[in-house]
User: Fold this.
Amino acid sequence: QVQLVESGGGLVQAGGSLRLSCAASGRTFSNYAMGWFRQAPGKEREFVAAISWTGGSIYYADSVKGRFTISRDNAKNTVYLQMNSLKPEDTAVYYCAACPQRYWSSTVGSWGQGTQVTVSS
Assistant:
């Protein structure tokens, strides 16, 4: 399985921006579709965004469309989540996920440890 390490979380005011990074190691990164999930206190983990192995297919949750952008750099084995116009309801632990297929499906093979994002009002 691929190992995943997230970074880039932090505290930001509403309306601000953050960029999360997820560095992968252990397997051929370009063979994996990648995704981002988040989990707020007291809530279930929810899908945020996903990207296929070449970046040609991208999916977003309705709650983040137009504000978040997922991208990947296969040369750097890294996937990113650019988050703009952040809202307090975006506060959560954000997790990187690797799907062992080239196009995203519900099968997640690996999870990162998570990075906290806190948006103050």
Remarks:
- The radius of gyration is 13 Å.
